[in-house]
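Morning!

This is the sequence you dropped in the shared folder:
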Amino acid sequence: SDSVQPVVEGAMAADYDADRYRTERENEKRIDRLALATGGTNPSDAAKAALDRGRIIAEAQNFARDLVNEPANTMTPTILADRAKDMAARFGLDCQILGPKEIQDLKMGAFWGVAQGSDEPARLIVLRYTPGDAPESPVIGLVGKGITFDTGGISIKPAENMHEMKTDMAGGAAMLGVMQAIAQLRPRVRVVAIVPATENMPGGNAYKPGDVLTSMSGKT
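The structure's back. Tokens below.
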């Protein structure tokens, strides 16, 4: 059973389709079926559990990869929040999505300072995993950066690799993947994941170098 989890996880990760938008799809190779030989013995409960762990972890990885690989026009803060909400509903996680007014009401000045430069409304994604058999503490907190496109703002970045700035939400995507896996692996611990999602754009409302921002903690 020790080899089952990495084999399943590796196969599912390797079979991932990273070119869903590519028009020309030649010489594609996909895994249609994976069979694990057991040497004639019935699979043990440990082997079945290892298979499930491998599948769950690989699916969570590929979910995160799907989010990161989307271009910024199809992975806005709103769409990222919707994907998180759908995942939470599917796997039984508590989900809370805050919009611009709630973010401002909470005096999240550092987050809002970045968000104010974009026409795309910001979203604060909060996911909670609270199993009934878990103790009150500790509570594990996960935070993932969800900048769905990072131009650099007023201090704009060089154009050469600007297209790669769609991946500035990979930390947030990773935390959403972690939560999907946790919801199925069901550890006896409370977990909260927070993903602040916004674009960082050089718009007329963008914060300027030298501006003073006040964070939620009151720190300037």
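Headline: Residues 45-69 form the longest helix (25 residues).

More detail when I'm at my desk.
O.
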